[in-house]
Prior knowledge:
Blueprint (H helix, E strand, L loop, with lengths): L2 H10 L1 E4 L7 E4 L1 H4 L2 H15 L6 E5 L2 H13 L2 E7 L7 E7 L4 E7 L8 E9 L3 H13 L2 E10 L5 H5 L5 E6 L1
Parallel strand pairs: 3-4, 3-7, 7-8, 8-9
Antiparallel strand pairs: 1-2, 4-6, 5-6
Helix pairs in contact: 3-4
Amino acid sequence: MAPDSLERIRSTIRDVPDFPKPGIVFKDITPVLACPKLLAQTIEGMIEATGINQVDKVVGIDARGFIFGALIAARLGAGFIPVRKKGKLPWQTRGVDYALEYGTNSVEMHLDALAPGETVLLADDLLATGGTAGAALHLIQQSGARIVGSTFFIELGFLNGREKLAQHGPVHALITY
Ligand code: AMP
């Protein structure tokens, strides 16, 4: 991607201090989503970063990961698979618990979502500590599908989340802070 396009995208992400709680600087991506050109460039950039042009399924994480995952899947001619918060998926699921700063969270995937041997790319809006993406990658691994990598719109590099994901293949991000 051209450096000036990347800079436009970066400067359109809005920092919201103290949301959802004091001390967190929330990366608000909605101004990027609202701009047709920047949205298209972001999706192209997240695909380009992976070096992949063919994959069977793209897995997206509840909820902003659905936006990026589904658009990337459509662009690659792949299917889209949602990983959702516990209790939201209607069919039989496999789930995994993971640690948050305080307490735990759970995510689930349909049991029949992925077939053994299928190639899978994980997509999400933002990589922070890597807990959420790590849990999703664990579910993909349990299904017997083959993880080809993970792609994020934004990475908070200072939280070292990619270290947690490294065992599951290459980790890519379009914008790093
Ligand atoms: P983590 O499990 O710590 O990697 O957190 C990842 C998830 O939390 C992402 O899917 C984001 O949607 C959300 N998230 C964490 N930190 C931020 C932040 N500073 N701004 C926006 N979203 C965030």
